[in-house]
Design a protein that fits this description.
309 residues; 14 helices; mainly alpha
Length: 309
């Protein structure tokens, strides 16, 4: 029982991450009446980075130079994805953006198979298809191809790269340090983007409370949990589990946001849960574990030197 629980901890951690992300949607909707989107991102991740460094700076100093480079790369990738998604959101319906963002669940196994030469078993491909279908039910209501959609799609591809990078570079002994550096880099990048136009904060106590919550829980704690979880499980499995985010978003929207439960929500949630079940409980396959995947990356780099490291 203890071993089974230990094996399930990474999944539980990622479910906690997606639940915290899902809880932010109705909060952000109100907060953005008080502060611009870019200012919100800058304040959120700058605060998360400062708090994380204050609490775990020793873990940063224990990182090797290589680990620091990896963490900075991951932070730049994630921060760029956040900014692209934010700009795209201003030009795209929220329902469409949710579906397009979720395309990282499709891109992750494709990148893993193509770039890292991982073997992805058929049950995982089926899980990916079910997850994409579920995302369509939850978020899609017609697609109009636009610049905004293109930016959000680019962000989704970067999220997939971030998931793959964490899967390759995070280990149990460096997860905390990687998380702190990532948060600091994301915060610095967002501050650099918003600085030329000045930066403002929320006007109300409620706005600041929401911002602090989103900086510490769906921000800092989520990055810590995801980085640790990905030192234990594959990137593709992570991507499938993380499609629970829109399910949690729908749950909190109904529970706390005053929205009505619809057949589309139920159908989408069912598909996503089925996908996660397949990814978690499907028959054992030959997907590589964390150490083997790192060896595969180095072999791939030798064959394709342009891959980032």
């Amino acid at each position: 029982m203890t071993t089974r629980l230990q094996r399930g901890l990474p999944t539980l951690a990622l479910l906690g991450v997606t639940a915290s992300w899902g809880s932010t949607f109705f909060l952000i909707k109100d907060l953005l009446h008080e502060v611009s989107v870019v200012d919100f991102l800058a304040l959120r991740f700058a605060l998360a980075g400062v708090v994380a460094f204050a609490l775990a700076h020793r873990a940063v100093f224990r990182l090797s130079r290589r680990d620091v480079v990896h963490a900075m790369t991951l932070g730049l990738v994630y921060g760029s994805a956040q900014l692209l998604q934010t700009v795209g959101l201003s030009q795209t319906a929220a329902s469409v953006s949710g579906f397009v963002t979720g395309m990282y669940v499709v891109a992750t196994p494709v990148f893993a198979a193509g770039l890292l030469r991982e073997h992805i078993r058929w049950t995982v491909w089926l899980a990916v298809a079910l997850a994409a279908t579920g995302l369509g039910f939850l978020a899609l209501n017609g697609v109009a191809v636009s610049v905004g959609v293109g930016l959000i799609f680019a962000a989704a591809m970067l999220y997939a790269v971030h998931i793959l990078g964490l899967g390759q570079w995070s280990r149990g002994d460096n997860a905390v340090g990687l998380s702190v550096v990532q948060l600091m880099v994301i915060g610095a990048l967002c501050l650099a983007v918003t600085a030329p136009n000045g930066m403002g904060g929320p006007d109300t106590f409620g706005g600041w409370s929401s911002l602090i919550y989103m900086a510490l829980v769906p921000g800092a704690m989520a990055i810590f949990a995801q980085t640790w979880a990905q030192s234990q499980i594959s990137a593709t499995r992570t991507a499938v589990i993380m499609t629970m985010e829109p399910v949690w978003a729908a749950f909190f929207a109904v529970l706390l946001g005053g929205e009505s439960l619809t057949v589309r929500m139920l159908a989408g949630g069912t598909f996503v849960l089925a996908a996660m079940y397949l990814a978690e409980l499907g028959p054992p396959g030959s997907q590589a574990g964390p150490e083997t995947r790192r060896e595969t990356l180095h072999e791939s780099m030798a064959a394709a030197p342009h891959l980032p490291i």
